[in-house]
Amino acid sequence: MKYSFRNDYGEIGNPEIIKILLESAYEQTPGYGLDPYTKALEIKFRELTKEDLNLYLVSAGTQTNMILIDKALENYEAVIAVDTGHVNVHETGAIEGSGHKILITPGIDGKLTPEGVLKILEEHVDFHMVIPKLVYISNSTELGTVYRLEEIQALYRLCQEKGLYFYIDGARLASALASSVANYTLADIAKYSDAFYFGGTKNGILYGEALLIKNKQLKENFHYHLKNKGGMLAKSYVVAKMFLRLLEDDLYLKHARHANYCAEQLIKGLDLLAVPHLPPNHTNQIFLTLSNETIARLSEDYKFDIWSPGKKESMIRLVTSWATDIKMCEEFILDLKKILNK
Amino acid sequence: MKYSFRNDYGEIGNPEIIKILLESAYEQTPGYGLDPYTKALEIKFRELTKEDLNLYLVSAGTQTNMILIDKALENYEAVIAVDTGHVNVHETGAIEGSGHKILITPGIDGKLTPEGVLKILEEHVDFHMVIPKLVYISNSTELGTVYRLEEIQALYRLCQEKGLYFYIDGARLASALASSVANYTLADIAKYSDAFYFGGTKNGILYGEALLIKNKQLKENFHYHLKNKGGMLAKSYVVAKMFLRLLEDDLYLKHARHANYCAEQLIKGLDLLAVPHLPPNHTNQIFLTLSNETIARLSEDYKFDIWSPGKKESMIRLVTSWATDIKMCEEFILDLKKILNK
Amino acid sequence: MKYSFRNDYGEIGNPEIIKILLESAYEQTPGYGLDPYTKALEIKFRELTKEDLNLYLVSAGTQTNMILIDKALENYEAVIAVDTGHVNVHETGAIEGSGHKILITPGIDGKLTPEGVLKILEEHVDFHMVIPKLVYISNSTELGTVYRLEEIQALYRLCQEKGLYFYIDGARLASALASSVANYTLADIAKYSDAFYFGGTKNGILYGEALLIKNKQLKENFHYHLKNKGGMLAKSYVVAKMFLRLLEDDLYLKHARHANYCAEQLIKGLDLLAVPHLPPNHTNQIFLTLSNETIARLSEDYKFDIWSPGKKESMIRLVTSWATDIKMCEEFILDLKKILNK
Amino acid sequence: MKYSFRNDYGEIGNPEIIKILLESAYEQTPGYGLDPYTKALEIKFRELTKEDLNLYLVSAGTQTNMILIDKALENYEAVIAVDTGHVNVHETGAIEGSGHKILITPGIDGKLTPEGVLKILEEHVDFHMVIPKLVYISNSTELGTVYRLEEIQALYRLCQEKGLYFYIDGARLASALASSVANYTLADIAKYSDAFYFGGTKNGILYGEALLIKNKQLKENFHYHLKNKGGMLAKSYVVAKMFLRLLEDDLYLKHARHANYCAEQLIKGLDLLAVPHLPPNHTNQIFLTLSNETIARLSEDYKFDIWSPGKKESMIRLVTSWATDIKMCEEFILDLKKILNK
Question: Would the pTM of this model clear 0.90, i.e. be above it?
Answer without folding.
Answer: yes
